[in-house]
Amino acid sequence: xxxxxxxxxxxxxxxxxxxxxxxxxxxxxxxxxxxxxxxxxxxxxxxxxxxxxxxxxxxxxxxxxxxxxxxxxxxxxxxxxxxxxxxxxxxxxxxxxxxxxxxxxxxxxxxxxxxxxxxxxxxxxxxxxxxxxxxxxxxxxxxxxxxxxxxxxxxxxxxxxxxxxxxxxxxxxxxxxxxxxxxxxxxxxxxxxxxxxxxxxxxxxxxxxxxxxxxxxxxxxxxxxxxxxxxxxxxxxxxxxxxxxxxxxxxxxxxxxxxxxxxxxxxxxxxxxxxxxxxxxxxxxxxxxxxxxxxxxxxxxxxxxxxxxxxxxxxxxxxxxxxxxxxxxxxxxxxxxxxxxxxxxxxxxxxxxxxxxxxxxxxxxxxxxxxxxxxxxxxxxxxxxxxxxxxxxxxxxxxxxxxxxxxxxxxxxxxxxxxxxxxxxxxxxxxxxxxxxxxxxxxxxxxxxxxxxxxxxxxxxxxxxxxxxxx
Length: 471
Fold this sequence. Notes:
Layout: E1 5-8, E2 11-14, H1 21-24, H2 41-46, H3 58-64, E3 68-78, H4 87-92, E4 101-114, E5 119-123, H5 124-127, E6 132-136, E7 142-144, E8 146-151, E9 156-160, E10 182-187, E11 195-206, E12 216-219, E13 231-234, E14 239-248, E15 257-261, H6 262-275, E16 281-282, E17 285-288, H7 292-297, E18 306-311, H8 316-320, E19 327-331, E20 334-335, H9 339-347, E21 354-361, E22 364-371, E23 373-374, H10 376-379, E24 392-396, E25 407-412, H11 417-420, E26 428-432, E27 435-436, H12 440-447, E28 454-460, E29 463-469
Antiparallel strand pairs: 1-14, 2-4, 3-4, 3-6, 4-5, 5-9, 6-7, 8-9, 10-11, 10-13, 11-12, 12-15, 13-14, 14-15, 16-23, 17-18, 18-19, 19-20, 19-21, 21-22, 24-25, 25-26, 26-27, 26-28, 28-29
């Protein structure tokens, strides 16, 4: 994996240079050429025919294109230049004290989910920290869009355009999809609007190294920068996923793309359109992968399930009687194969909902019902801690399977002091003023100051950086 990286598929460039990206693309590549699946003869034979009687998916594609939009985003970001933080350099060259910014533009895609209300689904990373969002339809009409709500944990955002005649695409059932099903990917790679590629579902239940709630559909349909937020569609014309990421050596498609299952998207969209945010609950457990060796040591016959490594004192899980070494094998009637799967199920439930668990303890199965409780960030917001954190929300990292502890930035309000600080949704804060932190309690202890600077060490993706926040 050292040669490969997960890329979120938004095309980004500075200023007006973005619109010239296509003209400067090289026509050759040193990356391996992706291998895509051809539609087999039995399926192809059942496809609609053109005027000449030739089987073709063109009639299906024609009906789908009006439901997929091009999204352009502009935002102002601080120029990351070490010289600009040098007081001598600033005085010598008479550089103003205020942060230096430049305008960034990004291109993504979106799916019209509700024509009557004007709701459009896209990725959170497409519109994160956007100052202005524009939506262009397949017939070249262009409109300003409002960000209704975002959810960094699932990388979903909902936009809205009002007073516009739209055509929505039907949302399918991603739980019914199987490996080997044929799909089409529709979006705007490199700003090439209305691009359609084909492939199959290559895998289900995939996760990447970005954290959050993940249950990706893997596909070999070509996905490239600009496809983020576009549609993954089955051959019945139903949206089964929202394209989000690719695994690549250099940012281009090698035939390994990931889409967010539409059933997960629908659950998030319901909350975003109702509340503008996802009121995500927790039960207060930390888990780890259940390996064959650990399963054997625990006296289990097989290695499937979610192993509980820690139960947070006073949490809903503790109140329900869950203990370390418990293995959750079923949640709300669904078989559990891993801790990430359990986390996904719990993460989509609302505060006050119940989750019925089947748990293995000392070789015996027990039934445990846990009431979903509040997440830490709902009890403490950034404004209550430090002026520079106003507008941000935080949560303890609840999955130590990768050995990462700290506090995750779960959201940042546009235009807030936190947005100007350089923090981004998904960042994991691992130290404050040179004090290592493992949870929200320690974060509150060291960051809870009404004045003074905050020196944060932040884990971002596969890298790390320091941020100095000033009140």
